[in-house]
Amino acid sequence: MSKPAVEVKNLTKVFNTGNPGANVFKKGITGSYVVAVDNLSFKVEAGEVYGLIGPNGSGKSTTMKVVLGLMAPTDGSAKVFGLDAGDVRARNDIGYLPENPYFYRHLSGEETLKFYGKLCGLKGKVLKDRIDELLDMVDLEGARTRRLAGYSKGMLQRIGLAQAIIQRPGLVILDEPTAGVDPVGSRQIRDLILQLKEEGISVFLCSHLLEQVQEVCDNVGIIFKGRMRREGPLEELVSIENRYSFVLENASPKLIKEIETLVEKEKGVTITEKGNPRTTLERLFLKIAGSKDQDEV
Amino acid sequence: MTTFTETKVKIPVLSLSRVWTIAAGTMTQLVRMKTFYFLLIFAVLVAGVGYLDFRLATAASQLETIKKISFGTMDLFAWLYAIVATALLIPRDLEDRTLYTILSKPVRRVEYLVGKLLGVLILIGLSLGLMFCLCMVMLAIKHGDLVSSELIKLSSDPNITQVEIEEQIALINEQGPRKELGVAALASFLKSSVVAAMTILISTFASSSLFTIITSIFFFLIGHAHGMMTDYWLHKTEGNLVIRLATKVMKLLIPDFQLYSFSEGVVTGATIVPAVVWSMGFLTAGYLFIFLLISLMIFMYKEF
Ligand SMILES: Nc1ncnc2c1ncn2[C@@H]1O[C@H](COP(=O)(O)OP(=O)(O)OP(=O)(O)O)[C@@H](O)[C@H]1O
Ligand SMILES: [Mg+2]
Fold first, then answer.
1. Listed residue (B193, B36, B35) closest to B118, CA to CA
2. Which long-range contacts (CB under 8 A, 24 or more apart) does B88-93 make?
3. Which of A15, A27, A208 to mutate for ligand 1's pocket (most ligand atoms within 8 Å of CB)?
4. Beta carbon pairs, A and B, within 8 Å
5. Residues of B in contact with A168 (CB under 8 A)
6. Which residues of chain A are under the pLDDT cut of 70?
7. Is the Cβ pair A116, B18 closer than 8 Å?
């Protein structure tokens, strides 16, 4: 009977972008508006990894903030495990890592986890054991007592991830978890996400790093200018039905030449692509992001 | 997959342990930001005041002046600290997005606000306690010096009787370190608490710490001119309705900080009326409550 981890229905979020200070009395008359999210609907099923991808300013972070109850929707609704997004109880079950997170710089890694653990109602030995476990999991055991002011970007991101899952939430929301992290660090984060998935935790993430999305996500939604453009299982999204590809390893130039002549003999068949394989998701992303007319896709 | 929400649904309206976690975090933050260094400056100033020679007629009036200056400085440091420390909290959390991570935990916004205020209040209380102790120590030393030099001076004069000497010493003792001075420190604490709550309110809609500090100081100063402005406006405008309303609103929104200056009398040795102290306590509680309530109303609907 498990309810979807996240259920967003017809969500719209409009920002008034008039200078809030100067326009406070004129709001609604002269203020200009930005429709950050436009009638967006999607579901993150319990236990799956869902990736929301889209170019800068397409409304990914805004959607996440609404799901977290940090912002109220202008229209539509967002539910977490069946509870309204604004409900405190819903947040019992959510872990969140914002984009480019900063935590209290003067706290050490251990103190940071303690702080967030206590906010979740953990204490005593349970909390202590959980902190040990997490520091080990995110590979920060060595930086345990060091203050966050001296952490590198990748370390901050990992302590952020640990902080997010301190109370063993059923849903983890990650806003660009690998932005600004080097390939090794992002591989670590990817492994952690897969580990979460294995433990049955639902993950809702957004990212620009499409290869990574491709590696961890079960379902993907592509958002552009606040609207959902494509959605579905990763496999379906990236496969093209009238095409077929095989990737060969260690094929000699002679073999490739032979295949090419074989194909040329067949009527109506053309080789549309050859060379070293590329991420197909990336192409789809670029096609959507590159189209000027937003209704075209 | 179990849904965790069903097993742990109960969340109290205000969890004291969460409030305390935030308050303790706030204290650690402010202490490690080295905001306490102002206490060193205060110590130096107070020690300096102790060594000033005012060349005043009597030893008693010397002590009185020293008290006025040191307790005045203590008061100034307390409310300035209240403004600066409070203004560093919320805008900074917002800037650093730390607020996102806190509010995405099962933390109610009221718990966050109350926790922040509580943390600041405890620190103000602690620093006032320290400053008070410094003042008292300095006063005790100065008092001892003055008494012994006065004794030497008086007893060397054959025309002065023992009774007269005792009278003189009693006069000096009156200006010495007496426990009633604690009430002056308490008054500073009450005032600073209201200042801190007012600053929290301002910081719920301000976008930066600097703006918060400047606005708070501005309102703090206006809060000292209540009586003056009311008189001026009402007389000048002969009770124009709009002005009268404006004054009413201003009086309602900006605390009358002048009320707390009863502590100045305490410093110079006026008798303390317990009823006044109690009523100031209640008034402070009322201000804190109202400021928190308005802050919360703004903060509840704030989007991040
Ligand atoms: N608080 C706000 N006030 C006004 N406009 C906002 C606010 N937050 C976001 N926006 C606007 O809403 C749109 C969507 O922003 P959002 O941050 O959700 O994008 P994003 O997909 O997360 O982008 P990025 O990949 O750069 O993080 C943008 O045009 C942005 O300018
Ligand atoms: Mg974003």
1. B193
2. B88/B30, B88/B33, B88/B35, B88/B209, B89/B26, B89/B29, B89/B30, B89/B116, B89/B120, B89/B200, B89/B203, B90/B116, B90/B200, B90/B203, B90/B204, B91/B203, B91/B206, B91/B207, B91/B208, B91/B209, B91/B212, B92/B209
3. A15
4. 118
5. 4
6. 1, 18-31, 238-242, 277-283, 286, 289-297
7. no
Put simply, the chain A residues between 163 and 202 with a CB less than 8 A from any chain B CB are 163-164, 167-170, 173, 200, 202
A92 close to B (CB below 8 A) = yes
ipTM (interface pTM): 0.83
- Which ranges constitute the DSSP H helices of B88-208? 90-95, 98-103, 109-155, 162-174, 181-205
Among A35, A37, A33, smallest CA distance to A10 is for A37
* pLDDT tens per residue, range B100-146: 999 999 999 999 999 999 999 999 999 999 999 999 999 899 888 88
Determine whether the interchain pair B18/A83 forms a contact, defined as Cβ–Cβ distance below 8 Å. no
- Residue A39 exposed, middle or buried by CB count within 10 Å (0-12, 13-18, 19+): middle
Write down the pTM of the prediction: 0.84
Q: What region, left, alpha or beta, does residue A146 occupy, with left being phi > 0 and alpha being psi -120 to 50 degrees?
A: beta
